[in-house]
Amino acid sequence: xxxxxxxxxxxxxxxxxxxxxxxxxxxxxxxxxxxxxxxxxxxxxxxxxxxxxxxxxxxxxxxxxxxxxxxxxxxxxxxxxxxxxxxxxxxxxxxxxxxxxxxxxxxxxxxxxxxxxxxxxxxxxxxxxxxxxxxxxxxxxxxxxxxxxxxxxxxxxxxxxxxxxxxxxxxxxxxxxxxxxxxxxxxxxxxxxxxxxxxxxxxxxxxxxxxxxxxxxxxxxxxxxxxxxxxxxxxxxxxxxxxxxxxxxxxxxxxxxxxxxxxxxxxxxxxxxxxxxxxxxxxxxxxxxxxxxxxxxxxxxxxxxxxxxxxxxxxxxxxxxxxxxxxxxxxxxxxxxxxxxxxxxxxxxxxxxxxxxxxxxxxxxxxxxxxxxxxxxxxxxxxxxxxxxxxxxxxxxxxxxxxxxxxxxxxxxxxxxxxxxxxxxxxxxxxxxxxxxxxxxxxxxxxxxxxxxxxxxxxxxxxxxxxxxxxxxxxxxxxxxxxxxxxxxxxxxxxxxxxxxxxxxxxxxxxxxxxxxxxxxxxxxxxxxxxxxxxxxxxxxxxxxxxxxxxxxxxxxxxxxxxxxxxxxxxxxxxxxxxx
Amino acid sequence: xxxxxxxxxxxxxxxxxxxxxxxxxxxxxxxxxxxxxxxxxxxxxxxxxxxxxxxxxxxxxxxxxxxxxxxxxxxxxxxxxxxxxxxxxxxxxxxxxxxxxxxxxxxxxxxxxxxxxxxxxxxxxxxxxxxxxxxxxxxxxxxxxxxxxxxxxxxxxxxxxxxxxxxxxxxxxxxxxxxxxxxxxxxxxxxxxxxxxxxxxxxxxxxxxxxxxxxxxxxxxxxxxxxxxxxxxxxxxxxxxxxxxxxxxxxxxxxxxxxxxxxxxxxxxxxxxxxxxxxxxxxxxxxxxxxxxxxxxxxxxxxxxxxxxxxxxxxxxxxxxxxxxxxxxxxxxxxxxxxxxxxxxxxxxxxxxxxxxxxxxxxxxxxxxxxxxxxxxxxxxxxxxxxxxxxxxxxxxxxxxxxxxxxxxxxxxxxxxxxxxxxxxxxxxxxxxxxxxxxxxxxxxxxxxxxxxxxxxxxxxxxxxxxxxxxxxxxxxxxxxxxxxxxxxxxxxxxxxxxxxxx
Lengths: 580, 503
Prior knowledge:
The complex is a heterodimer. Chain A is of the alpha+beta class. Chain A folds into four domains: 3-69, Phenylalanyl-tRNA Synthetase, Chain B, domain 1 (2-Layer Sandwich), CATH 3.30.56; 81-287, Phenylalanyl-tRNA Synthetase, Chain B, domain 3; 293-362, 2-Layer Sandwich (Phenylalanyl-tRNA Synthetase, Chain B, domain 1); 382-579, Bira Bifunctional Protein, Domain 2 (BirA Bifunctional Protein, domain 2), CATH 3.30.930.10. Chain A is built from 15 helices and 26 strands. Chain A is elongated. At the A-B interface, strand 14, helix 8, helix 10, helix 11 and strand 17 of A face helix 12, strand 11, strand 12, strand 13 and strand 15 of B. Chain A: InterPro entries: aa-tRNA-synth_II/BPL/LPL, B3/B4_tRNA-bd, DNA-bd_dom_put_sf, Phe-tRNA-ligase_IIc_bsu, Phe-tRNA-synth_IIc_bsu_arc_euk, Phe-tRNA_synthase-like_B3/B4, Phe_tRNA_ligase_beta2_arc, PheRS_beta_core.
């Protein structure tokens, strides 16, 4: 979940509520769903919240939500925008990153706190909506350092989003003193090493030029020339990415934050060349796009989801307190509301999201719980009942019931049981082709177990300091590859049991298996077999009602020694469904 | 009449006319004295013998006493030397007498104090006199010592014996001696004939069927001794907890779901309206499978409806996500990160056929998360998952259902904190008051499934759902601190064996 650092003094300043002490602020924030997690080293609140309201990734956004909460603001607010003076020309940009957006904000009087908040907002948006810059990356520049003379348009100023040869183009990146090519940045610059992978496969790297030359290498790093400082008053914001909607809305969130700091937003024309890749070839987009989206919500649906009766004035009031505008209208389904959603709300993608906002404004916890008046008959799944009955029988026979992980590694599942991991498949119990995990997190868990005796042997190995006899059993999942299954995996429940005691013998194991078979009215036969995990001449197939379903025997001394055991173990394993 | 062997022997050895000491009886009956004593008391309880007790005093010479008997008392030596030195006629120098007596060390003091006490003479200012009339040759203490040494203690003077004990020359100990004598009933019993009954260790089936048990006596056990340890089998603590949860849910009208652990991302994520570029869908959070790599078959019309929900949204005002969506990713196989994949399969009608409201379903099954292993997080854990399908469900119904469920486990004062999940709206994190500590703790996540989830599945009523980890419930209820102690191959058998059963 996102965490945002917020200076409580800034919050008091931006909300205009100097009288709120820290505890009051924390409690108000909690009611908004922002949880106080602790203090930062700089005495700021660390606030954690669910990743829907990405417009709250800055102190300005949190302050705006609080002002609605305090009813200082109501309804949709749209900052004024001046018409475009600058444009972004888009041509020959990389196919893999075809989209760009932008905005200008002028007249800022930034202090350290405001600049830090802007940097944090940028980072947090990168981490969330921007998908670690892959989907959208933000560049903020000092406008006065850009030279916008355009060769194509004498009247306006422009910058150009295009591509560059990674080995030829040069600029001085942030945190560097010398000119570097994009390739050098990717190889030797710290930020380049972090984000270079995003464009490493591109023939030509994304690049933004002004009249002076290359000044940004998105999504990796900006040039030093246009670096923003507390003295910067006018900012040029550009964002590149793989989805226009996403970067446009990231841009809206940044513009709203800067407008809250007293900045004047100015539009930028994004002009895609006729042969530019992407959906907007030949089109000019006016950005930022502060148009409101409208959704129709029926009164019935609001009442049925919230489970309360409301009149339309209440609905409109709650909507406005959530920062939305609602007007009554008629729909096919009766009375409804046209609800306007402000341009910074990226989470509202369906009328249900508006009902949630209304519920939050109303206060969900003020609702009285009711038990739904619908009657159904419950019951256990057949398989789960069978599993329970078999487990009860094993416990009755004195076995300690175990619960082990379904994930295991090849060594435990095969090698340490004397099975050949390179020759899987076939009918030998435990020898199935295993389900394997991609890029396993730990060497201990690389496959799904094909049988459960290896898990039991591991428990015996880890408990040699505990008293004997150790009679252990487990009923659990085992799986193997199987083309005849739709998922490609045959999953079954397996019954495994082991007797570890100084005089454990085949007969002890068979006596218990026989008791189990009798309990489920199954006919047990044990024709001799060979199995690498068991002593030759002391292993048998488990045949229940004529079907071979498992193996029983005395565990081979090699396997015992491998598991540091100093006493014999007799064991059996078979498919649970054989007891059906 | 049958009596245990020991009792018969004692009866036969006892006499009607005189008391016989139990030691003698035991020797005659070939019993250990303790066994004979026990038998005598048992017979006395039945009125067949009387048992008399008398306390005997036994004297024994100490090492010092033994030496004096063989030699002489120190005061006798001193008297002899004094006589030789002429002390009978008048005082003589003591040093001279002592030197002549051959006494040394502690014996000098012993001799001097007893010399005066027995009036053998007087000792004054370093001079010693001897009493002409004294008769150390018939000293009563020496006579008593000799009597004890000769086993004639009855001849000894009792005052002298006391004196010798005080001087540490004799040890006296008391012994209780029991004697038995046949009573009239005992004589009668003997005359009527009495047989020895056998004593047995083990009651046998033959004894019961033959009636022989009536004539045997059972050897006595030490019933207070510790018995050997027995370990009983026990259902695993998490299984017990799972069963309690299942019982509760079945009682509330829920039916159990079942389905694959390894499943397509389609059922695990796409049906749940999780965008394909959602951070939780990377392999850092879930286990993608190398083999098998993708599912064999997905219902094509359902795939199209799910794709459309992601890309275009559902309903006239639905927007969908601005994220890429491909069927290839949906076909990819994972270990399920939640059992909501089962809910999706059931709701789609592809698992057990079309469902009509109202329905209630649950599962308590394993899920897999690529997380760091620590005391509270496992790579595999059990998820409790439940949902209710009905017309016009409200958040109040959701609150009522979960309040009821958690109260069964002692978790009360449920609070609903508005939350965000991609697949439910409204969504709530559930907080409750811990039954033991009184803390407010998170106990689950819940919500009403979005239209983008239900419409593609073909469900046109409401479905509310919730999830919770079983391990979390176990830890809340039983205060385990490290879940690895109970779940997995690192488990401690001792802990499993000793854990209290769940009621």
